[in-house]
Structures are given as C-alpha cells and as structure tokens.
Amino acid sequence: MDHQPRPGVRAKRSARDRLIRLAQTHPTWALGFQDEVWWSRLAHPALHRWAEADRPLRLVEQAVAKDAPDPKALACYGLLVRWWAPHAPRQQAAGLRFVEGRPVSALTIAYLTWCCAKLQALGKEALLLVWDNASWHVSRAVRTWLRAHNRPVKAAGRGVRIIACHLPIKSPWLNPIEPKWSHGKRKVVEPDGLLTASDLAERVCEVFGCPYEEHLIISQDAA
Question: How far apart are CA 100 and CA 207, in angstroms?
C-alpha cells in the first residue's frame, strides 16, 4: 500500500541522510537540495490572512492577451545550499535561475555549471546534490556530463565535484526546498494586478534573498 514504507524509500532516504552527515563534517563541502518550479503570472495560491470584516482581501482573476509578449508562467531552477563550519552555526543560501522554455537536460547542465562556479567562489570543493528523478536529472546527457565534470576536478584537485543522490519517487517531503516554493508563491502574489515576467522574476529573487540574473537559455551548440 502507498502509505506503508517500502525498502526502496528507506534505502534512498538513508543515502540522503548519509550525505547530510558527511556535509556536517567537511567544511569545504556543501549540501544542496535542488528542484524546479513554475511561477505563474495568473494562478493564485491559497492564502490565509487577517483582514478587516468590511474589507476582505480579494484575489482578482487575471487574463493574458493572445498576442502578449510575456509567457503565462516562468520555469525556475532552485538550489537550497547548506554548509557547516567548525564552531559556527549552519549557513544557508538559495541559488535561483529562471530559464527560457521548460527544464531540459541542456538547461540542467548549464544550471549546475553556474552553481559550481558560485560554490567555488565560496571556497567549496564538493556539492552533495539531492534531487528527484525528473527526466532531465536522470537523462543520459546529464549523467554523462556529471562524469565528464567530476573527472578533471578530481584529477586536478580544483573545482567543485558533484555527488548526486536521487530521492525516492513521489517523496517531496524529503526535499526541504519544496515548502519554500509554496511559501514563496504566497509572498509574491499580486492580488489585483498582473505582473510582467521580469517583475515576477525579480520579486521571486527578492523573496529568496538572491540577485536576479539573466534567464538561462540553450546555446546553439547544446541545441
């Protein structure tokens, strides 16, 4: 039955917990929980808030013209990074990049490359990556890239090596970035207006405390 624990779930959860323990004992390693999400300019999340009895908050349904240049929703990659240092509290940061189109293998590779550059600038040597089994995570292209990326990093001792751990299927509660998406959508909602795509992206980055950067696109070489 679905609600009963299964051996596969326990094994993969144990692998995730083992990475967490490893990260806590290596100051130059970072633990990253990764996921993708769509930010809609039209859909409104469920909200609960106090309001005056005669002035309740009302979310106005929006519409987009067929010839509007901005998309109805934006796809976004996110990495919740945690690291530990001796005699210091746990550090945490979020790295967001919006993308043109939808998540695919080429964009995943571009995003991981960007994340490694950011972590290397922080003095990190390894990213213990926890993510789900989305097709663009387990694709041959991504698995081949991970091997090709790690090989020279390990040989030269420079750069950020990636150790990937896949979560069990349908187990969002094991990924702490998942609830942050829900809270973020409540914070960026515009009750009675329609945000432009750029305004929405900048508002999301502000909520997560990270700078807004240009959207990732698939290069001609990758395409």
Answer: 21
Q: Cβ neighbours of residue 1 under 8 Å, at least 6 residues apart?
A: none
DSSP codes joined into one string, the chain: -TTS--HHHHHHHHHHHHHHHHHHH-TTEEEEEEEEEEEESS---------BTTB---PPP----TT-SS-SEEEEEEEEEEE--TTSPPEEEEEEEEESSS--HHHHHHHHHHHHHHHHHTT--EEEEEE---HHHHSHHHHHHHHHHHHHHHHHT-S-EEEEEEPPTT-GGG-THHHHHHHHHHHH--TTS---HHHHHHHHHHHHT----PPB---TTT-
Give the global pTM: 0.85
* pLDDT tens track for 17-28: 999 999 999 999
161/149 Cα distance (integer angstroms): 7
Average pLDDT over residues 152-164: 94
